[in-house]
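Lab notebook, bench 4. Still working through the backlog of constructs that have no structural model yet. Next entry is a single chain of 268 residues. Request: give me the structure tokens for it.
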Amino acid sequence: MIINYPSLFSISFGCLSLMAASVSFGESKPLPVVLQLDWVLNAQFAGVYQAVEQGYYEEAGMEVEIRPVPKDDFSVEVVVADPAPYIFGVAESNVLIQAHAGGAPIKALATMFQDSPMGWMSLASSGIEKIADFKGKRVGVHTDGEKPLELALAQFGLKRGEMEIVHVGWDPAILVKGEVDVMQGYYIDEFVRLQLLTGGKGKFLFARDYGYLAYSQVIFATEKMIEDHSDVVKRFLQATKKGWEYALDHVEDTADLIIAKYSPHLDR
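Model written out:
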């Protein structure tokens, strides 16, 4: 079944309607909460940064440590294995579904994006206009992009064996160097980098246009965490929602914050 979700950057926190309106924390010490991201510190986590900067997490009685993606690992495995009593993770919905089907004791809680910016990048000079043009090409993917690619290929009756599929890192410079013809990426991240490298000569095919309609940046936690600390979960989600509302209402200030404190290497 294919479900059509709202446009990119919508925020879904429907479960928040079930949450308590207010909580009194007294003078107790803030809880040490960990948020394990599935990517580097980039603009797609703007709401989380503002929840920290505006004191929303502090008001909720917690001190949040934001951890970028671990090298050569998935956020799901890291969260499940981490002994920290209060830990949340972020991941693509397809990653969470596969992990849960494999026995991971996790539950999705809320989504930052109701649509996925995932897709495939190429250079304009490559002549690649659609998925069918991947035939005979060298296609670079990340581990979390295997299923979206298979879904897209199936719509054109293509098989993996009709192209060379290789696992690659996240630097689109390999496209410029000709090491791959096509590369998986995020429209709001790697494709921006490609456009900067090429002077705007990149092309992008959205995975959503080929059947991959999914949530992105899904906040999750282990079943035990949710069962043992349901109030912490509620307070964390409330504060995160407020952070996103602030970020979207103060776009320029948020861009300043990201460049100044979280990702100084980014181009504005």
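Notes after review: The CA atoms of residues 259 and 265 lie 7 Å apart. The first strand starts at residue 31 and ends at 36. Flag for follow-up if needed.
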